[in-house]
Amino acid sequence: MTITVLDTYPAIRGILRSPLSERPGLLRAMLEPAAGMYRYFPGEVDLVEMHRMGSGFPLDRDEKRCEEALEALHDADAWGRIERALDEAVAVQLAATPGITVPDITVLVVLGDPGDAHFTGTTLGMTANGSVSGYLFLNFWPYPENLARLEATAVHELNHNLRYSPGAVVWDPATVTVGEQVVSEGLADAFARQLCGDELGYTRIGVPHLDDEAVFAKVVSGLEVTGMRDFAAWVHGDAIAARYGATPVGLPTGAGYAVGNRLVDAYLAATGHTAAEALLTDSREVIDTALDRIA
User: What are the contacts of 144-151 at 24+ separation with CB within 8 A?
Assistant: First the structure.
């Protein structure tokens, strides 16, 4: 097992300083080592367009702001801290579940788009994805809160990656439930909190709703909804759903994360397990145990 954190710092700096006409090609070359994260997409994927859709740094504006932000990430040792955190997290996970197979993992760290109000505001300057086995995508704007959470964010996405690796929990886009996704977010946050502490381990967008009973009841009412096409609103909230053309359901940003944390914490309290030990627990077991305890 090898974890490779791609050294994208010099590549991003070079792109920002290059002539406009050369930037798409340079960006495509930087992204190519992580292209496998799109292997389940139908047809050929345009890596530059995926970068744009994922709120990656722009190619035609805001160069000075982006260079300053890139240096902030570099000065914070973002790449080194992420690599060390992932190495430690894998060791903790293997100690708890020695039978799992950890894949080789490629980690893509990019700078976000300061001109994207949805990214800088709604998602608080951070997007990430660890759902495709063997790849982690981490996109930051260096707000102080995000710099403090570099390790926790990486560890959260690692938890997803290991839960859905081959031989572990099966993810079928057509039949997977909102409950599975909500539980997976709670497990990932619980793992990040186990390693980094509660202050840093929670995903920021979910924190405002951790104690909101109306949000809890609403998300619980949708746990049996099937098919990942409906996940955006139930898990991420209406604003993020609207961004990607999904149907709102009346939930604030981060609702599913908040509820996932409450469900997982109740499950862990009832069973005495750690988050690492619960990595592969069936979401139905988590939900049923948690709701019995909370009732």
Answer: 145/204, 146/204, 147/72, 147/73, 147/76, 147/78, 148/200, 149/196, 149/200, 149/204, 150/76, 150/78, 150/81, 150/82, 150/85, 151/81, 151/82, 151/84, 151/85, 151/195, 151/196, 151/200
The three-point CA angle 69-51-9 to 5° equals 40
**From the CB of residue 287, how many other CB atoms can be counted at a distance below 10 Å?**
22
Q: Find out whether 105 and 136 touch, Cβ atoms under 8 Å.
A: yes
Residue 171 zone, left/alpha/beta (φ > 0; ψ -120 to 50; rest): beta
pTM: predicted TM-score of the whole model, two decimal places: 0.96
d(CA 249, CA 33) in angstroms, rounded, equals 37
AA letter at 282: D
Q: How many angstroms separate the CA atoms of 216 and 263, rounded? A: 10
> DSSP characters for 128-153?
EE--STTEEEEEE---HHHHHTHHHH
Separation CA 175–CA 17 (nearest Å): 46
Q: Are 157 and 188 in contact (CB under 8 A)?
A: yes
Q: Give, for all 295 residues of the chain, the pLDDT tens digit.
A: 899 999 999 999 999 999 999 999 999 999 999 999 998 888 889 999 999 999 999 999 999 999 999 999 999 999 999 999 999 999 999 999 999 999 999 999 999 999 999 999 999 999 999 999 999 999 999 999 999 999 999 999 999 999 999 888 987 777 889 999 999 999 999 999 999 999 999 999 999 999 999 999 999 999 999 977 778 899 999 999 999 888 999 999 999 999 999 999 999 999 999 999 999 999 999 999 999 999 7
